[in-house]
From TrEMBL:
Ranges where the Luciferase-like domain occurs: 7-215
Family matches, as CDD domains: Tetrahydromethanopterin_reductase
Protein name per its UniProtKB record: Oxidoreductase
Keyword annotations of the record: Oxidoreductase
Pfam families with a match to the protein in the record: Bac_luciferase
InterPro entries in alphabetical order: F420-G6PD/mer, Luciferase-like_dom, Luciferase-like_sf
Record field: transmembrane: none
Length: 265
């Protein structure tokens, strides 16, 4: 994880460090009012060659769905197979702060996810929803490879929506292994038919020191052992999240060179 509290100008170096260290994926997130998530993803992709970059997540009230589809398609065609994108409600206080809070975030997310998925699949979309309105919209340059739409979810209604519509779910830091099992159960129950559904979870991590506020901490061996609890609970992608103020490059190198080999083994 490259935290949004890090200066934007340090992202390119961090992305190169992640690729050199051999991490599978580098994840970003978009909080108000730090980095723009898509521009950050573009920087990380452009300054690496094989690194997969995840954005978890983009708040849907801030972007017209057609514009987001255009941006994702542009990045995916340029860096095929290297972009993962999640969307979510957004923090409601922040959405109110910028004048974009809606009466029913769940309705917006349903309409938005449906339209976004169809647009990224190259379909012509007409929509006349409560929040999403499209008339004969089709991307001229749709993604050249499939793009998974992930949803950020915590509560049971949004988890069920993710199971119904999305290709995967992003779970926030603080979601315990037991809570992951419960979430996976809700997601699977909501799917109309069995299909792949990828679960991404952020897990706060403290390396070498005993951080009382970290979900996994200690030596590389202790961190790997702790991380397996989330993997065993049903997480497909575990995103280790450093504390605020920690040196991003140092943390990334340690995860790539010391922790990741233990997890792969």
């Amino acid at each position: 994880m490259f935290r949004p509290e890090n200066p934007p100008e340090t992202l390119a170096t961090a992305a190169r460090a992640a690729e050199a260290a051999g991490v599978d994926e580098l994840w970003l997130w978009e909080d108000c009012f730090f980095h723009g998530g898509l521009s950050a993803a573009a920087i990380a992709l452009a300054t690496s060659t094989t690194l997969v970059v995840g954005v978890g997540v983009l708040p849907v009230p801030l972007r017209n769905v057609a514009l987001l589809a255009m941006e994702i398609a542009m990045l995916e065609r340029t860096f095929p197979g290297r972009l993962r994108v999640g969307v979510g409600h957004g923090v409601q206080d922040w959405m109110a702060q910028v004048g974009e809070r809606v009466g029913s975030p769940l309705t917006l997310l349903r309409e938005y996810t449906t339209a976004l998925t169809a647009l990224l699949n190259g379909e012509t979309v007409d929509a006349a929803g409560r929040y999403v309105t499209l008339s004969d919209v089709r991307l001229d340059w749709p993604p050249s490879t499939p793009v998974e739409v992930l949803l950020a979810a915590t509560g049971p209604k949004t988890l069920a929506l993710s199971g119904e519509l999305a290709a995967g779910t992003v779970l926030t830091s603080g979601t315990s292994p037991d809570a992951v099992r419960e979430a996976v159960s809700i997601i699977r129950a909501a799917a109309e038919q069995p299909r792949p559904h990828h679960v991404v979870a952020y897990v706060s991590c403290g390396l070498d020191d005993d951080h009382a506020d970290a979900e996994v901490c200690g030596s590389a061996e202790q961190v790997a052992h702790g991380a397996r609890q989330w993997i065993d609970a049903g997480v497909d992608t575990i995103v280790l999240q450093p504390r605020v103020g920690e040196d991003a490059e140092e943390f990334i190198r340690a995860i790539g060179t010391r922790v990741a080999p233990l997890l792969r083994g």
